[in-house]
């Protein structure tokens, strides 16, 4: 498991390396959820807070997640 902010920091430090490690892979992310939406494909999307108020970690779920709440 990785925190949303640690994931953000990994991409900020070296985007190419972070893409190889995390992009399009199942990753367990922990942190504060700032929004939950449904995309055009009907998938649940959660945005996680980071230390940069202008950046969120956007996570799309393949399957419907359990109890996911903002806050």
From TrEMBL:
Tell me where on the tree of life, at the top rank, the source sits.
Bacteria
Know the name of this protein?
Uncharacterized protein
């Amino acid at each position: 498991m990785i925190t949303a902010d640690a994931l953000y920091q990994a991409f900020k430090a070296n985007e190419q390396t972070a893409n190889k490690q995390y992009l399009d892979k199942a990753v367990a992310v922990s942190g504060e959820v700032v929004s939950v939406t449904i995309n055009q494909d009907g998938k649940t999307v959660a945005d996680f807070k980071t230390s940069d108020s202008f950046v969120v970690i956007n996570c799309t779920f393949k399957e419907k997640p359990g109890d996911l709440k903002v806050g």
